[in-house]
TrEMBL record:
<dbReference type="GO" id="GO:0008763">
    <property type="term" value="F:UDP-N-acetylmuramate-L-alanine ligase activity"/>
</dbReference>
<dbReference type="InterPro" id="IPR005758">
    <property type="entry name" value="UDP-N-AcMur_Ala_ligase_MurC"/>
</dbReference>
<dbReference type="InterPro" id="IPR004101">
    <property type="entry name" value="Mur_ligase_C"/>
</dbReference>
<dbReference type="GO" id="GO:0051301">
    <property type="term" value="P:cell division"/>
</dbReference>
<dbReference type="GO" id="GO:0008360">
    <property type="term" value="P:regulation of cell shape"/>
</dbReference>
<dbReference type="Pfam" id="PF02875">
    <property type="entry name" value="Mur_ligase_C"/>
</dbReference>
<feature type="domain" description="Mur ligase C-terminal">
    <location>
        <begin position="322"/>
        <end position="457"/>
    </location>
</feature>
<comment type="pathway">
    <text>Cell wall biogenesis; peptidoglycan biosynthesis.</text>
</comment>
<comment type="similarity">
    <text>Belongs to the MurCDEF family.</text>
</comment>
<keyword id="KW-0133">Cell shape</keyword>
<comment type="pathway">
    <text>Glycan biosynthesis.</text>
</comment>
<dbReference type="GO" id="GO:0071555">
    <property type="term" value="P:cell wall organization"/>
</dbReference>
<keyword id="KW-0547">Nucleotide-binding</keyword>
<comment type="function">
    <text>Cell wall formation.</text>
</comment>
<keyword id="KW-0067">ATP-binding</keyword>
<keyword id="KW-0961">Cell wall biogenesis/degradation</keyword>
<dbReference type="Pfam" id="PF08245">
    <property type="entry name" value="Mur_ligase_M"/>
</dbReference>
Length: 483
């Protein structure tokens, strides 16, 4: 084995082959790609083939479709995501052979151990903020290693092995595994109730876990936090590390003023307490993305990057896959409609997406096809979903995407439809299966509509298929291409 990167983990010299269970996921596949490029032998399994598995196979990974005990022959360590059932046959076989089984974040922590780690945590905005950081550092000539939970369009990938000491990555709070990370800089974008099963329904326990994450910083490390998030600010006295705040308020260390929003972009002025004052054109719309950019700017300035490089990188930013991604204009048979795809699946994220859509296309009717993600999230945030989803003009509500969860009694999209209907603002349409969506869309879309496919499940596959085939929606229905 030849390890190619100067920052490879020397203590992992006895490890030759690393196996990933759930290798098709963005986070898992990203780490696998970095390790491939470092020279390790990579294998992995997933329930279905995907663009990620195809990419990794092309780069030399062995990928198995389906989980079987024989898949782990010859491996030295097994990496699993939190979505994998502990009874998975590959996990059971690994334990029987005394092969180490570790979580994704543990492997990410090893990659970060001998690098200058920058970890981005928070309920919302992690992927965008991490992507902006990776773009800025690359444009400034720092050649960072990065692992992102979405496709960075400019790089054509969600992970890359760089030659510098910098590693920029998302920190996953969903299973509290971000506690494995020991970065030099930690970002917290915001904190809301989500993944509460991990924290046994105790929000205070979640807050304490964020504090533990920040305490993983060395005493000379830096916490960069959103000063406009009241929950984050309540934690400030407990952080116990050097801290910089960002936001719109004059009290923040780094702040945005004179904010203006245009079509698919934002304009604002950055001012800091240590004298920086410059204009930024961000290639992303929405107030929430201005905050994400401020987080990235704060880190970049603190790391000594040139102001001009920051401005140029943000202006040329090409976006991230499935984050308010414009997929084109389509002839529906009744006229032209715009299609936008978005990954957001928490009420706050969906509401921000709706606000951005209204700002970009104020005169268009907003048709949203929404696929709820996880039974527990739908249950825990039920009333918020009812309120937010009532804000669109036409709602097509798909059944809940389980993401490996068992059904929760009384929690389904039919119930959600009834509650939205009772609210009295719109008449939602229930869609039992994502394969039925093209036909339903063909019935409801009108000329000049804005159609949004929204959610973290397999609804994104349908949106991409609409884009790649360049067919109108009614053709999709009749040609049988509606999976």
């Amino acid at each position: 084995m030849t390890v190619q990167a100067s920052y490879a983990v020397p203590e992992m010299r006895r490890i030759k082959c690393i196996h990933f269970i759930g290798i098709g996921g963005a986070g898992m596949g990203g780490i696998a790609e970095v390790l491939l490029n470092e020279g390790y032998q990579i294998s992995g399994s997933d329930l279905q083939a995907s663009a990620m598995t195809a990419r990794l196979q092309k780069k030399g990974a062995r990928v198995f479709i389906g989980h079987q005990q024989d898949n782990i022959q010859g491996v030295d360590v097994v990496v699993v995501s939190s979505a994998i059932d502990p009874e998975n046959p590959e996990i059971q076989a690994a334990r029987a052979k005394r092969i180490p089984v570790i979580r994704r974040a543990e492997m990410l922590a090893e990659l970060m151990r001998f690098r200058h780690g920058i970890a981005v945590a928070g309920t919302h905005g992690k992927t965008t903020t991490t992507s902006l950081l990776a773009t800025i550092f690359a444009h400034a000539g720092k050649d960072p290693t990065f692992v992102i939970g979405g496709l960075l369009n400019s790089a054509g990938t969600n992970a890359r092995l760089g030659s510098s000491r910098y590693l920029i990555a998302e920190a996953d709070e969903s299973d509290a595994s971000f506690l494995h990370l020991q970065p030099m800089v930690s970002v917290v974008t915001n904190i809301e109730a989500d993944h509460m099963g991990t924290y046994e329904g105790d929000f205070q326990r979640m807050l304490d876990t964020y504090i533990d994450f920040l305490h993983n910083l060395p005493f000379y490390g830096l916490a960069v936090v959103c000063g406009d998030d009241p929950v984050v600010m309540d934690l400030l006295p407990r952080i116990g590390r050097q801290t910089l705040t960002y936001g719109f308020s004059e009290q923040r260390d780094v702040r945005a003023t004179d904010v203006r929003h245009g079509f698919n972009h934002s304009l604002f002025r950055v001012q800091t307490n240590n004298g920086h004052d410059f204009e930024v054109r961000l290639g992303l719309p929405g107030k929430h993305n201005v905050l994400n950019a401020l987080a990235a700017i704060t880190v970049a300035l603190e790391e000594g990057l040139e102001q001009q490089a920051i401005v140029e990188a943000l202006s040329s930013f090409e976006g991230i896959g499935r984050r308010f991604e414009y997929l084109g204009e389509y002839d529906t048979g009744k006229g032209k409609a715009i299609l936008v795809d978005d990954y957001g699946h928490h009420p706050t994220e969906v509401e921000a997406t709706i606000a951005t859509a209204r700002s970009n296309w104020p005169d268009r009717r907003l048709v949203m096809a929404y696929q709820p993600h996880r039974y527990t999230r739908t249950r825990d945030l039920y009333e918020d979903f009812v309120r937010v989803l009532s804000q669109v003009d036409v709602l097509l509500l798909l059944e809940i995407y389980p993401a490996g969860e068992a059904p929760v009694e009384g929690v389904d999209s039919k119930s959600l439809c009834r509650s939205i209907r009772q609210r009295g603002q719109i008449e939602p349409v229930y869609v039992a299966d994502v394969g039925e969506l093209p036909g339903v869309l063909a019935d409801v879309i009108e000329d000049n509509d804005l159609v949004m496919t929204q959610g973290a499940g397999n609804i994104g596959n349908l949106a991409k298929r609409l884009q790649s085939l360049q067919l109108n929606i009614s053709q999709m229905q009749t040609s049988g291409e509606s999976n």
